Amino acid sequence: xxxxxxLLAGLFxxxxxxxxxxxxxxxxxVPTLGTALALVVSMLLxxxxxxxxxxxxxxxxWTGIGAVGTASLGIVIFDEPxxxxxxxxxxxxxVGIVGLHATSGGH
Length: 107
Hints:
Elements: H1 2-23, H2 29-49, H3 55-77, H4 84-103
């Protein structure tokens, strides 16, 4: 169950990271509130997940999910470049996330 909680925490991390763009430097009240809410939920879920998962593994996976999701949405939503190298390095992060999960035991 902790892995599902960690996945959800990572999704909320993507939400607050993307929210930063929409909040315009935290100057727009509604996007700022959504960003802050997503940040708090993400942290609370991460805190729950680390009750059963090693902190190093959980933190690396959480940030990896956030990085992959945010970079991918940056390409799709904000028209950021989707170069072969960029996509390749996003793929490397995915491999790291999968590897950490596979070698963590008790998945």
